[in-house]
């Protein structure tokens, strides 16, 4: 599992100063110092545990799709519900209304007849599965398809994903994720020069699923 990159200037200065101070100390003291630095490093397992902790997350999202052919981004907005061990409800409100459900069984879209499963072998399907893995803190799932590099600390971190799987390499060059206790932004950089910036806003983790949301996940 990749370790957090701590080779920033401040980190080098802090470690160098500490090692200089303890250079003349007994070996056990130096070992304790190094273990202390290691214990305070924020790693992928800690990030996974942190993101997986809430049972239910409600929030709003704003998505900006930047296309090379257009001078202004395409903006869409909506709400989402993330339920641990169940999946993600992605409820688009503008510029049009459309409801999606992303679970381990696949991706479904709601129409007049209820939830309808969509084809599962597409770049769009991969992107939606990616969102679910990121929001649920599934680092083991992400590591199957990406090289991961984590920087920062628990309340201010950045995760960089570089695709390894052939399908994702055809779509993305890099994915950047920022967050604290929860994910705040997801930026997808595409091979053709387009990009998508997703902002997760007004997130709350203290509200249980409503009866309607439970019904949506159960169908």
- Largest sheet: spatial strand order: 6-5-4-3-2-1-11-10-9-8-7
Estimate percent helicity. Answer: 25-40%
Mean pLDDT: 79
The largest β sheet comes out as: 11 strands, antiparallel
- Unreliable runs: 1-23, 27-40
Number of strands: 11
| Individual helix count | 7
Rg (CA only)? 20 Å
Please identify, by name, the CATH architecture of the largest domain. Clam
Query: What's the CATH topology name of the largest domain?
Result: outer membrane lipoprotein receptor (LolB), chain A
Strand content: 35-45%
Structural domain count: 2
Q: Assign the CATH class of the largest domain.
A: Mainly Beta
Structural class designation: alpha+beta
Distance from first to last alpha carbon: 36 Å
Order of helices and strands: HHHEEEEEEHHEEHEEEH
CATH-defined superfamily of the largest domain: Lipoprotein localisation LolA/LolB/LppX
Q: What form results from the Cα inertia axes?
A: globular
